[in-house]
Amino acid sequence: MEGSSLLSTSHGWLFYILVIGIPVLLLSIFCCLFFRKPFIKSLKGKHVFITGGSTGIGLAIARTVLREGAVVTLISRNASNLSSAVEYLLGEVPSTTKECIRCEVADVADYAALSSAIERAFTWRPIDVFVCNAGLTRGGYLGDGQLKDLEVTVQTNFMGSVNALHAALPLLKRHSCNKPVSIVITASLASLFFMYGHAVYTATKFGMRGLAEGLRFELLPYNMKVSLICPGFTSTPFLDEADKEEEICKLLKWVNLYSRAWAESAEGVATHTVAALKAGSFLVTTNPLGLVLATLARGFVPSDSLPRLVFELFFFIPFRLSSMIIIPIFRLIVCRKRAAATHVSPSFYDL
């Protein structure tokens, strides 16, 4: 009798766990993921600081936030580009006045100039959204390129973000005591999968991803969020550099599915970026290929929504299996095309 009583009690607890506990847990997860409050409800009156803000994605972000009533500070090392950017923005956003746009000439690789520009911008208005967007590439095989070009890539992409964040974080942390603060790091799909013929560029983008992941946890005690934006090939001056090396460009089409005709628009990337910083989302991709790469390369970074989690769980194994087919095909293409270009027969081991 005693044993049956214990058994019935254990069955009773099991019943409560299955019928009540699990549904409550699932409902809680559902509510947390689907009914999360936006991190930043509106950008109206917010101060958005953008490095690399005079062209490309940075300029598109500026246009998007100005349309939502924000004010902006644009940073660029080129004064002429800044002047053109202001004229463009005033024409594209009729409600915008010159008082809504500040410009600072500074190279993100120059810590002294950049930190001074950040302090002046913060004195003008406290910064609510801090966008590390400056970036470039110098195409070419690693052993063939000029060392100075590789150093410029590292200094601009990686150290440019480190310099900007190091200078801004003490100010941003203080401001977060009163208002939510968003940090946006514009990376690339090259943060998740290499870009052929741009090894150093790829390394800087992987580095920016690591920087964002580490920073995200450092800032947990503060009212601050980090968004890592990973667009694919985007129709900006960046593609002019990607097109310079004919052989590399041909292989990019096979290995990285590069096509200038299919490139994303800077405005589309900007729309994804603004939505992400408002929601407080961390790892953000902007095209279908990004869904695949983020699924494979996410690591310990949690999904930002339940549909995304379900998608990644369902497709992880098929995506992993596909790499057993796709990567050998890429390898064969690269070896044969490079051999044809250099007039050297690929060895058995290359194939």
Helix count from the secondary structure assignment: 11
Question: What is the total domain count?
Answer: 3
CATH fold group of the largest domain: Rossmann fold
The proportion of residues in beta strands is: 5-15%
Name the quaternary structure: single chain
CATH superfamily of the largest domain: NAD(P)-binding Rossmann-like Domain
- Strand order, sheet with most strands: 3-2-1-4-5-6-7
Helicity, as a percent range: 55-70%
Which structural class do the helices and strands define?
A: alpha/beta
GO molecular function, one term: 3-dehydrosphinganine reductase activity
Keywords: Membrane, Transmembrane, Transmembrane helix
Transmembrane segments: 13-35, 181-201, 313-334
Task: Kindly describe this structure.
With 351 residues, the protein is an alpha/beta fold. The chain is 56% helix and 10% strand. The chain folds into three domains: 35 residues; 258 residues, Rossmann fold, CATH 3.40.50.720; 46 residues, no CATH class. Strand 1, helix 2 and strand 2 form a beta-alpha-beta unit. Helix 2 crosses helix 9, helix 5 packs parallel to helix 6 and helix 10 packs across helix 11. It is globular, with a radius of gyration of 24 Å. The C terminus is likely disordered. Pfam families: adh_short. GO terms for molecular function: 3-dehydrosphinganine reductase activity.
Features:
single chain, 351 residues, alpha/beta, Rossmann fold, 3 domains, 7-stranded parallel sheet, 11 helices, 56% helix, 10% strand, globular, disordered C terminus, 3-dehydrosphinganine reductase activity
